[in-house]
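Hey all, quick one. A colleague (J.T.) asked me to put the manganese (II) ion job into the tracker so the inputs and the structure tokens live in one place instead of scattered across chat threads. No bug as far as I know, just bookkeeping. Sequence used:
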Amino acid sequence: MQPDITPYLARRRRVLERLGEGVMVIATAPEALRNRDTHYPYRHDSYFYWLTGFAEPEAVVVLVAGRRPRQILFCREKNAEREIWDGFRHGPKAAADAFGFDAAHPIGQLDKRIGRLLQDRPALHYIIGRDPAWDARVLGWLNEIRGRARSGVRPPERLVDARALLDEMRLIKDAHEIGLMRRAAEISSAAHRRAMVATRPGRREYEIEAELLHEFRRHGAPAPAYTSIVAGGANACVLHYVANDQPLRDGDLLLIDAGAEYGGYAADITRTFPVNGRYSGPQRAVYEIVLAAQAAAIAEARPGNAWNAPHEAAVRVLARGLKDLKLLKGDLDGLIESEAYKRYYMHRTGHWLGMDVHDAGDYKVDGEWRSLQPGMTLTVEPGLYIRAADDVPRAYRDIGIRVEDDVLVTQAGNEILTADTPRTVVEIEECMRA
Ligand code: GLY
Ligand code: MN
Ligand code: MN
């Protein structure tokens, strides 16, 4: 499908303005073999797609900045035979027209043409150290230019990690990106509701995973944004549980962490609900603590606040709750100071969200937590994971709960993109009765 290219053109122009006289070269992701001659479903590179909207493999974008800026795409050629087997390819001519490039060339000509584009430029911006084969290739380009020194040309003096520039730009989402993230969030919310309705004792975790995938796919999401976690009972205390093959038991909770990718953007939602549709007393007590921690954290996700403010707010509520449940003993500040709460809450309260589920962008700048700004998108996902142990009261053993929503920082504060996902005890129990 041909995307609206306006936002991609605007991004390339903004990058060109910031490159000075430099050149940026970004390759898309390689195709990956799954086994023998079968490939994983293809997924473009996020940086490349952010700049181009072009989803074919074997493509490279070259942005040449300066007085006469040029945007050049290298991509696969038309190939009647391959298109019979694998489907449509734009080919350079049609790709340049459709995606707004000044020029496009066959990918096979990259090594031949790149020297002329890089020579006598002060800096080359590319993603350093991500792929050894590309690193070697880029050094080869520089050496090729150096080999022509007597004709008066020089290779770029500076090799700059392109992520320095691109990560900062990806951190603030434009209107087009926010639109796609809203849709990813909507589809993912619908999938969580579907999972709640489908869950009952005796079904297997993978049956519920199938409900999620069904809902993603039927709304045009090509894939989950990450491997879905569908974890019944004690499995919820395994943070990256993905086996998803156990039966669901009456009286247990089910933790689902799943989100769709749509238009290249991720949603990331977690809900934890009772397999039989009703929270038990102890389950509810722990759930309400996590929910209160999430509310406190979301309230802190507003412009001007430090990145860490939501996490600190969540930790305080969780630690107080653990004390109330008598799972921790001591004074509240001491429990926070000593990080005693980490026995039950060992991860952080969120991460940037965007094209990648753990999206691009630094969390600290010059050693200080970054300030939140309108247009940033993050998750808020506190949890409590109470593994069975002799000193844990029986009623709380093997309860694992996380609640995760996706938040857009706005001028006024924030907006919860995933607000359509039942979240309170009442909302969840009502959804499950449906
Ligand atoms: N699903 C990955 C995460 O929550 O960070
Ligand atoms: Mn997350
Ligand atoms: Mn998640």
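Adding what we noticed when we looked at it: The CA atoms of residues 41 and 138 lie 27 Å apart. The radius of gyration is 25 Å.
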